[in-house]
Amino acid sequence: MSKLILVLNCGSSSLKGAVLNTENSEVLLSCLGEKLGLPDAYITFKVDGQKEKVDLSAQPDHTGAVGAMLDKLKAMGLDSQVGAIGHRVVSGGELYSDSVLINDDVIAAIEKCIPLAPLHNPANLLGIRAAQNIFEGLPNVAVFDTAFHQTMPEHAYTYAVPRKLYRDLGLRRYGFHGTSYRFVSEEAARFLGKDVHNLRLVVAHLGNGASVAAIKNGQSVDTSMGITPLEGLVMGTRAGDIDASVYEFLADNLNLSVKEITNLLNKQSGLLGISELSSDCRTIEEESLNGHAGAILALEIFSYRLAKYVASMAVAAGGIDALVFTGGIGENSDIIRTKVLNYCEFLGMNVDAEANLAARFGNAGIITTADSKVVSVVIPTNEELMIAQDTARLSGL
């Protein structure tokens, strides 16, 4: 068997991992480490549909979780076949427009970008250091969420604030979900039988974190997220676009600090805040069908805001040949897709109800009628495979 790739995606208290064979895209092992940093930390492995939970109390951190992965690979007889490790890194700022082999300079650059992703980059560094320690000698590759969006033109990424703030602090729009957009744009072109370098796509990556991007001729030309993943669409717990004066308003009326307001907008808003019910789209859809007013409103706002962004991204792309839905919500919510396409009917998209219902649970498919002027398609994303392919390429496997 060819050398395998280990893919790591680390959060502050979690670790998602997968071992892939890039030749056939097979996932041989996946795992999720949770409650890292707490005494009751654990990791759950999944192999051939079977799950196994392993206690990490002896070393309840990222290093312990990666060590448990090595133990599992040894038990499966696969440890010697892992040839390299790929890491999802949220922000590379303006420093990287492609994935890169990790060395001391790259680690320093990721540290430099911490102010641009204070919740994510420190966790990504924990995963890198854990992998270097546990899998000593193997090459590590950083795959940046921001890299794909480095092709955005200056007029798309520049905020209308004093230019000195950009020059001195790097205050600009960076965008995220770039690895997903890169995979999905290429896959959508293949699925539609088109050349991605001659295609105007608007892609909606919808999950607990949600964004939309304009991809023209294979390159990102605009996206909804900004300097952080808070800007843009309504999300599971994030407010998305909001008047910046809300900070002063809440500080004056509720005596909240900047940090507390940022926490409110990131973790207490979005679908959760509107519905006063849940951040989980599945729960909200179910309750909306039962007549829950907050759930009904949350779905409508989510869909309406997305539809407005679809139209604006068509401007950025110079037109629209296809609207692509991806991510957990984008791939599975026929209700939201229907709402968005109905709002976008003026652009020439007419939903095919039967096809839309069929395009769920990992099934790609066109969801517009044959007479639609613009096609809409569901394409499942696979960020892990994209990371693994980049890692194999850069490590020479």
UniProtKB/TrEMBL annotation:
Swiss-Prot/TrEMBL catalytic activity: acetate + ATP = acetyl phosphate + ADP
Protein name: Acetate kinase
E.C. designation(s): 2.7.2.1
PROSITE patterns in the record: ACETATE_KINASE_1, ACETATE_KINASE_2
Pathway(s) of this molecule: Metabolic intermediate biosynthesis; acetyl-CoA biosynthesis; acetyl-CoA from acetate: step 1/2
Active-site residues, Swiss-Prot/TrEMBL: 145 (proton donor/acceptor)
Subcellular location per the Swiss-Prot or TrEMBL entry: Cytoplasm
Binding site for ATP: 16, 205-209, 280-282, 328-332
Family statement: Belongs to the acetokinase family.
Co-factor requirement: Mg(2+); Mn(2+)
GO BP terms, alphabetized: acetate metabolic process; acetyl-CoA biosynthetic process
Pfam family, one: Acetate_kinase
CC cofactor note: Mg(2+). Can also accept Mn(2+).
Described purpose of this protein according to its UniProt entry: Catalyzes the formation of acetyl phosphate from acetate and ATP. Can also catalyze the reverse reaction.
